[in-house]
Amino acid sequence: MINRKSKREIEQMQKAADLLVEVHKEIAKMIRPGISTLEIDAFVDKFLEEHGAIPEQKGYNGFPFATCASINDEICHGFPREDLLQDGDIVTIDMVVNLNGGLADSAWTYAVGNVDEKGLRLMEVTKRSLYIGIEQARAGNRIGDIGHAIQTYAEGEGFSVVRDFTGHGIGPSIHEDPHVPHFGLPNKGLRLKPGMVITIEPMLNEGDWRSKVDSNNWTARTIDGGRSAQYEHTIVITDGDPIILTEQDR
């Protein structure tokens, strides 16, 4: 069942999103060679606690951390760890914030020090593909319109689109219907209606789109060692332009 949100529910999700944006902006200041993703995770855990919020994914199906931290060839669900970030790495930090029952979800890929031109372009195209998908997230369009727009752009720029992981509805739990693939055909799939709240979170790879999962049964990485980037927003479908709850550049 798809839960269409009330004005009050959306307002509460916006408060959670505002806090999530604040966390990402703090993380952006922290990212540098020599810091560990475990340090970042500990910061997020403490920051949310101090602001009366909960890291919703901690404990979700047994996931043990407040954040997912995916480095270089890791696509998603990377475990924060003690290894120090190196100059030239790219790292995606993904988290879900629960503030008084309102949820918000956002991932962002960060450059660590001096990233090569191809890595920076991967990040740029992935971020742009997110916003190209968001442009299609409006009442009357279909889920396939979002994925088709992302896939057409990303593949046209020479990158592949991960198919094993998708966007999703959100609230009252982390993952709700509908699934939101980042590939597909236009005019196909569920029709979008006002009040739906979804995530759009394209993951683009340098090489093959396929993934494999580590022995921890969580971390997905590229099958060929190519790097992967991801950007994600939580979106409200309206009668007009979509509302980006987790927008960082208001």
Automatic annotation (TrEMBL):
Organism whose genome encodes this protein: Ornithinibacillus bavariensis
Designated gene of the protein: map_1
Residue sites binding substrate per the record: 77, 175
Role this protein plays: Removes the N-terminal methionine from nascent proteins. The N-terminal methionine is often cleaved when the second residue in the primary sequence is small and uncharged (Met-Ala-, Cys, Gly, Pro, Ser, Thr, or Val). Requires deformylation of the N(alpha)-formylated initiator methionine before it can be hydrolyzed.
Keyword Nucleotidyltransferase annotated: no
NCBIfam families, alphabetized: met_pdase_I
GO MF term (any one): metal ion binding
Names of required cofactors: Co(2+); Zn(2+); Mn(2+); Fe(2+)
Pfam families for the chain: Peptidase_M24 (PF00557)
Name used for this protein in its record: Methionine aminopeptidase
